[in-house]
Design brief:
The protein is an alpha/beta fold and 293 residues long. Helix content is 50%, strand content 12%. Strands 1-2-3-4-5-6-7-8 form an eight-stranded mixed barrel, surrounded by six helices. The longest helix is centred in the first third of the chain and has 22 residues. The protein starts with a strand and ends in a 12-residue tail after the last helix.
């Protein structure tokens, strides 16, 4: 998705074979290829693992797999990424967010612009070690990431292991800041108690991370006004708040900003910008937001 300050991203999924709700579809050649690839994996891989002659079983599996036309899937992913980056340039979004494996590619296409490349770390579950996350973050930074969005370890939060939560945040923040880049922690607020959200934000203030962020977009829910309000009240002016997940229209966008979000992550940026353009045309060039902070 694309992430922006006062803007958003384009309609349609990041990969062409997924809908907004991440449901599989066979509406495209790449989507059909992906579905067939999954079916072949489920059918053949257990047989490969149990085969007495692994090499011949693997060769059979790869033959069937390659007949699924995986190149169509790869080509569509590539075309979709190209399209999203061009839209980011056209609408001047603040950042294009990608998985860390696409960092170098994305950075290369954006290097002559002021649009940031944002790498997602430990995404989307966050259930990897601190060492794994710092390695992934360092690799992304070396490959051109301007911003790091890492998912914290929710298991540690639920265990009230606040020393672990703070250590993880401090190490990733220190690493990111050593490159003079921006660091964000993703809370996945839909799984947290209000007291847990507040505690994480308090730790974030101690660590001096740049942003606290609501959601990955893969959880059971996205950004909620009550969570944005609580996060902003806790971090005050010391840290920025990023709202992400479920923001699909201009009205929701403005509501998030009105309660303290200074960055919005969305999969509907282009349509939101077009809504703002229409509002401005009918309001002497202005967009109105009633602030509550």
């Amino acid at each position: 998705y694309v992430d922006m300050l006062g803007t958003s991203e384009a309609p349609g999924p990041w990969y062409p074979m997924y809908s907004y709700s991440n449901n599989m579809t066979t509406a495209t050649e790449g989507g059909m290829a992906w579905t067939k690839m999954g079916e072949v994996k489920h059918e053949y891989l257990p047989k490969v693992v149990m085969a007495s002659d692994f090499d011949s079983a693997w060769e059979e599996y790869m033959g069937v797999y390659n007949n699924c036309n995986p190149q169509a899937f790869i080509d569509e992913m590539q075309a979709e990424l190209d399209r999203r980056i061009e839209e980011a340039k056209k609408y001047h979004f603040a950042m294009v967010a990608i998985n860390s494996g696409q960092t170098a590619f994305c950075h290369n296409l954006l290097k002559d612009t002021d649009i940031h490349t944002g790498a997602a770390i430990g995404f989307p579950l966050g259930q990897t070690t601190i060492e794994s996350k710092t390695f992934e973050a360092k690799d992304a930074l070396e490959n051109g990431a301007d911003e790091i969005d890492y998912q914290l370890n929710i298991t540690a939060v639920k265990a009230k292991d606040w020393d672990y939560v703070q250590s993880e945040m401090q190490q990733i923040t220190n690493l990111t800041h050593s490159y003079n880049k921006v660091c964000k922690v993703i809370l996945e607020t839909c799984y947290l108690e209000k007291s847990e959200i507040q505690k994480i934000c308090e730790i974030a203030c101690e660590v001096k991370i740049d942003f606290v962020k609501t959601s990955t977009g893969f959880g059971s829910d996205g950004a909620k006004i009550e969570d944005i309000k609580l996060m902003k009240e806790t971090v005050q002016e010391f840290i920025h708040v990023k709202a992400s997940g479920g923001i699909r229209d201009a009205e929701t966008f403005k509501e998030m900003v009105s309660y303290g979000a200074s960055r919005i992550g969305t999969s509907a940026g282009v349509s939101i910008i077009e809504e703002f353009k229409q509002e401005a045309q009918h309001n002497n060039g202005f967009i109105t937001i009633d602030m509550h902070i």
